[in-house]
Target: Phage shock protein B
Amino acid sequence: MEEVFAIVAIFVGLPWLILHYITKWKTAPTLTNDDEALLEELYQLARRLDDRIETVERLVAADNPEFTPRRIAARDEAVDPKLDELDRLLSRRTAK
Model:
């Protein structure tokens, strides 16, 4: 009886277990084209808002000599390499 159980486990149970998890892996949620478009739109919006904040800081700095725009100084000192890489990837993707 134990031999039959072992054979059934090897030839039925093991393939069922493997196929079950392969199916779960393939049906896992992934990014769709709509999701990617939304992420790109949000990224562009964040960039525009960042530019607006820098513009406001420049205007305030021009009107008030005691104001020091911290964001502009910090951005000029250390440019974020991850954002530059993301810009390159987006420009390469839109060029295709």
